[in-house]
Amino acid sequence: MSSGDGDKLVVPKFGSFKSKESEEKRRDREDRQKRDPRDERRKRSHHDERHDRHRRDGSRESKRRRERPRSRERERERHTERKPVEDRPTQRTSGPESFVIDTKGDPLIRRYGTLDRSQIPAYYRYGYGRVLGTSGKLIIYRDGPNDTFGLRMPGEGVPRYRDRDGLRSKRPTAHSQPIPLRRRRVAPAEEDDEKEGFLSLKSSKKQKQQGESSEDEGPSYRSIEGKAKLKNDDSEMDSDSDASDELENMETSSPLKWKSIQLNRRVKENPEDIEAWLELVDHQDELLRASTADGTAPDNESHSYSEIKVSMLEKALQNARDVVDRERILVPLMREGAKVWSNKTAAKKWAELGSQGGSHALWRVRLEFALTSITEFDYTSVKEMVLDRLRHVLSLRTESMQSNLEAIEVLLLATRFVQDAGYKELAVAAWQAILELTFFRPDAAADDSVPDSFKEFWESEVSRIGETGAAGWKHYVATNGEDDPPEPLPALSLPPAQSRDSFKVWSQLEVAHANAARLAARTMDDGTEDDPFRVVTYADIEPFVFMIPRPLVSSISASLLDAFLIFCGLPPASSSDWARALYRDQFLAPVASNIPSADMDEAKPEVDENESIVRRPPIFNRPYSAFAISSASLFPGKDWFSYLQLQIQSAPIDGGWLETTLSQLVFSAGCKDLSEYYLAFSFARDSSAVKRTAKKLLKQSPDNASLYNAYALAEHARGNSDMAAKVLQSAMSSPLLSQQSHRFRLHHTAAWMAFVNGDITLSKRALCAAGNTETDVSFADVLKSGSAFSGSMSESLSIGDVDSAETAAECLVLHSYLTNSEASEPLSVSQGNISAAMQTLESASKEIALRGHGITAAGERLVQFGAHLLYLHATRGPHRRAYIRDQACKQLQRFPANAMLLSVLEWSDAGLRIVDETRQLLRDQTLLPAADCVGSRLFAIRHELARGNVHTAKAAFEQAVRSDACKASVVLWAWYIRFAHAHRRQLRGKGSGGGGATDVFYRALRHCPWAKVVFLEAFGTLAGDMVSDELRSVYSMMTSKGLRVHVELDVVVASAEKMRHAGA
Question: Which of 229, 756, 885, 949 is the most buried (most CB within 10 A)?
Answer without folding.
Answer: 885
